[in-house]
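Thread: "does anyone have the structure for this chain?"

Original post by V.I.:
We have the sequence but no experimental structure in hand. Need at least a predicted one for the grant figures.
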Amino acid sequence: MNELGSLRRLDAFVAVADELHFGRAATRLHIAQPALSQQVRQLETDLGLTLLERTTRRVALTVDGEAFLPYARQLLVSAQGVLRAAEELRVGARGRLRLGFVDSTAYEFVPSFLHRFRAAWPDVGVELHTMSSDEQARGLADGIIDVGVARTVPVRPTVESHVLGHDRLLVAVPEDHAIADQQSVRLGRLRNDTFVGFSREKSPSLHTEIRALMLGSGVRYDPAIEATEYTTIVGLVAAGEGVALVPAGVRRLHLPNVTYVEITDREARVALVRLSRPDEPQTVISNAIAELGRTVSEGRTPR
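Reply from O.Q.:
Generated one for you, tokens below.
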């Protein structure tokens, strides 16, 4: 007896038990009466029990039928729950999303994405991992995360990347810095400054990218202090340890004694990159990828 056939037979029995009439039960289930009778008889054969007394004048439950009816109802409710859960998994309404993201997106983009994603798929569990772009690429290949929000495109055949957009770079400076009262500055103006930067050990790709950018403006980029979080980096700027190049979203981090100054160089920007595995079969992950794109195209601020 296959499982779907069992459910149909249970459903047929419960309908007859409720109606105590094969004709009305058949109408309720939208099937022919002979087919309904056959399903009930097959259930009795499968169980080795007589569940119904049938005469030309009436239908009644046997003692075994009375005893079995509550179990039949419970089995149907459980089966419907299983089928509903399977359907929710199929469309991505349930499941788990393991999201990796770079620290600089934690102030604006990732909260906006989560706001949208949770509104659309409230029953999906979300697990967050703050990771550098390089760590995300490894995490995807190793199955630690499902989707990544990164700054650089990794050279890994097992990782698919898509540039969602770009964020302008700003320079965070102490309030007593010579450019603190300026609206904008060119990168070359920073050639005599000491830098505080993101860890080159954790994110060698980002370090290489920024170093090349600065070299193009005649600035040697070799941070005197490196940290793994922008809260620490901006805190070091506030303490007067140097200046820092930060993605625009970081300016939402307001600390005393820190000013953010725009950079006018057109190339002074960093990518916002979505990382995932090629041909990802899970619908919940496909839904997350779609919401990442919508977060970019419809604005990043939760409404």
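V.I.: this helps a lot. The chain has a mean pLDDT of 88.
O.Q.: and The first strand starts at residue 52 and ends at 54.
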